[in-house]
Each structure stands twice: as structure tokens, then as C-alpha cells.
Amino acid sequence: MTTAAPAKPARRTPLARTGAARSSAESRIVRSIGEAIADRRLPPGTKLTEESLAEAFGVSRERVRKVLLLLAQRRVVTLIPNRGAFVAKPSPKEAREVFEARRVIERAIMERLERLPRPLSDDMLEKLRGHGALEDAAERAADRKAMIRLSGQFHLLLAEFAGNATLAGILTDLIDRSSLAIAAFERRSSHTCSADDHRRLIAALIGNRPGEATALMIEHLDDVERQLDLEAKTDTRIDLKAIFADEPEPT
Amino acid sequence: MTTAAPAKPARRTPLARTGAARSSAESRIVRSIGEAIADRRLPPGTKLTEESLAEAFGVSRERVRKVLLLLAQRRVVTLIPNRGAFVAKPSPKEAREVFEARRVIERAIMERLERLPRPLSDDMLEKLRGHGALEDAAERAADRKAMIRLSGQFHLLLAEFAGNATLAGILTDLIDRSSLAIAAFERRSSHTCSADDHRRLIAALIGNRPGEATALMIEHLDDVERQLDLEAKTDTRIDLKAIFADEPEPT
DNA sequence: GCCTCCAGAATTGTGCACAATCTGCGCGGT
DNA sequence: ACCGCGCAGATTGTGCACAATTCTGGAGGC
Predict the structure, then answer these.
(1) Are A46 and A87 a contacting pair, CB within 8 Å?
(2) Which domain covers residue B125, as residue numbers?
């Protein structure tokens, strides 16, 4: 930021550890960028220059390139050939699809959780309550970043309880993309934060009135989606293109 | 195959086109390997040496490396650091999870299809019937490879009709992983091929008796899973470990 | 004043050389 | 005879240099 010295290639730690240590460093970077996108330090459309990221994380450009490829596969960043990587900017259609996919998967998860033998295991109860406390704390502190992260983790926690790591993995991606959709389409106004919904969900799960937790989850997801402004005004550029699409050419 | 001349690095086409043409070449390779895995020309556990693949496809090793990274992300190949890439060998647990995930997603897809206004669009009817004919033909010709490919495409076709590209994309991965699971766990015996199930599904969809198509789909997926031998004898190594786990040490 | 075009800068893409690691095998010691 | 040790050979991992492309700013013409 201060000096514009491009000659220093940001040498990484002297002992360049290789092997397993590297892979964890990569997933660390993936997670780090993922979180930054989720809590909007990196808004949709942001250009992600390889060199800058390499410098920021103290790794080589190739490593960053690999990470970007992974993130692109998860639809969190968009890779445009010869143009670079950008934080993905979902279309309203895609946003709706993501929420629909979440409803499909999370309904199934809730149905499985409701089918679990009662009472729920102590481990589960403890984790649920612990997480609830964390969300409450974040809400009281008005720590928006923490709230966003915890909200995602809550849904993931439920997925893990359902005991299907494959579904949980799919949901992980969908949650990241939800964050992106929220960042792109959130209305200026309102946003009754979802900690309250989560509280009710936890209570319903523990209480086990058949169908209640599932219904609450669907309603919760609907609520979040409804708080978005998904009218189809994606981009000025695209609008112009559409408007002048069938203008006759003035030779 | 005939000569073992390793000195020739399999030069790619003289004019190394760059840009958009490259990305399509990559997805071509991904698809090609994916299909080879699906129809068992590449059984689970097969070592995928970068150099061999590069030679086979006439591209550089780096390109192959990128493709393998993508396939690994989709859990179709397993990447072991410093050891290389292998065709993934799902555990019985993972196989079950994949089929459960498919039931979750494909049930939702069928419910949406059943909710479609009737009669179905000509386009849909034509594609359904056309696909049915293809499957019949493959069955009559006993073309196992074609049957496997068409079977996957059938499920994907339904997903596309449901109009949610995100769900369809998720299902694409799950179908590939199903193929892997089938390759890994199929019983020697039987295998009443699923073309018949698909025929009935098409009929139920067109007929539109509420819930029938959805029920058939669930049953179909259950059938396919039941035809697998998912008893937990994943690996000899692990069996030994389990068997001798609580043997007293003979010092 | 505005548009077009072009050179230089910045950024991404790719081949290559070499380093790091794993595997298989032979050799010597006990 | 058996076990560890270590040395090739093969394979993967990574930094780097350079090629290709896009972007930017400004000069020149209309």
C-alpha cells in the first residue's frame, strides 16, 4: 500500500516445507479467502489478482493459482480466461437455485434429525447449546462478522449430526454461495438476524414435536431468501446489451 | 503401446492455441477420464500417472495436473501427496452416503416434475421418448458401456427438466460417484439393468398419477444400491487390523 | 470534442528445469 | 536367513523465465 516496490517477490519462509504441510497451507488459504468473501470483506465482483494474494499470504503465485482453481470449482470465484479471478457475483436465478437446493438438502437433514432416538445424545445437546450461546454473544456484541460465520456453522453442525458427510460437504458449498448471494442482493433495510430463528430451531429439535423443526428450517431459509432483493436487475452492462439487442445496425 | 520411447515428449498441435480453446480442451479431458471411470475402463484404485495421461491426450503434464485437481475436487480421483492420483475407491460408508444424497435430491426433482403443468411440453416428451429409445437400443445390443452412460444421462435429463441447474450440477457429481461405487461394489451375479425402471419412470411421469413417479424413483435408487455388496470388507489391510485389534501382545 | 489506434505496462498462461519424495532392490552386517 | 541401510530410477512438486493477452493512457486524426 505504502511503497510500490514490485522488485521484492515476497520470499516465503526460508525452509520451504513440502509434503503434507503444504496441503494444509493451501486449505488454510482457501478457508481464509472463503471467510473473507462470506463476511464481505471481499464483495462480489472484486478482482483477485494472483500477485497480490501471493504477497498477502506469503506464498508463490502458483499456489494462489491452485487455490483459485479450487474456489472456482466451488463457484465462489469466477475465472475468466486471460482476465483473472473475481469474487463470484451470482445472478438472481442462481441465488434462487442455491436457496432451493438448500431447502431440499436441509429439509432432508432435519427429517433425519427428527428421526433420531430421544433424548438426543449429550454431545449433541452440549454442542447445540454451546453454539446457541456463541450466537447470542455475537448478537449482543453486534459482531456482524462473527454472526455470519456462526450462522453458517450452525447449519453445518446440524448437517454433521445427520451423519452424512457427503450431504454435509455439498451443503458447505451451498452455504458459501448463500453468503455470496446475500452479499450481492441484501436489501439496505432491515435484516432481523437469524440467531432468533436458530434458537427456536434448537428448541424444536430438543423438544421433538414431529415436523416442527423441519418446518422451522424451511421457514427460516425462506425468510433469509425473502430478505434479498432478487429482482432481475443484475447488471447495467447486461441491461444495455439486452435493450439494444435487436436494434438495427446503422451501417 | 508398441515402442517405449520416452524421449519424445508428445508434442501437442504445432499452433498451441491459447485462451478459450484451452478451457474446452480441459473439460474434454475431464469428461473423457470421467467416462472412462464410469464405464470401468479405469477401475477404482487405478494409478493415474501424470506422464501417461499427458501422452495419451497429447497435452503437457501441467494440463493433466490441473485436470486431476478438478477430478479430485469432485471426489472421482484421490490425490495422495507425493504419491500421485488414483481412481477413487469409495468406502461402503461413502457409497451409502452418495446414494442417500441422490435419494434426497432426486426425490425433490421428481416432486418438482410431478408438479409441472400437464400435458408436458412437446420438447420434454420428445427428449424422454428419444432417450428411452436409445436405452432400449443399447439394451438390445447388450452394449454395457452405452447403457451405463445413458443411465446416468437419463437422471441428468430429469434434473434439467426440473429447471434448477445448481441441483443438476450437484447431481452430476453424485452420479459419477455412483458409477464409482457400482464399479467398486457390484456383485458378480445378476444386475437386471435399469432400462426397465427408466421405462416405467417415463410412463409414470407422462401419466401423472400423483406421487407415482417419485415413488418409482426412490425404489429405483434403492434397487441399484441393494444390488451392491456393501458389507464392510473394504480392504484386506483394514480387516487384518480389525481382526488383531485386541489381541494381546505376545511380547 | 470525441473517437480510434497504438505502444508500454501489468497480468495471466505455460513450458521447463530442477528439487523433493517415494519405490524397489541389492548389499552387508548380525 | 533376516533385517536394516542406502542407493538408483521413477514420479510428483515447485519456482522461474518467458510467451500471450489484456488493460491503460495518450497521441493523432476527423
Answers:
(1) yes
(2) 92-226
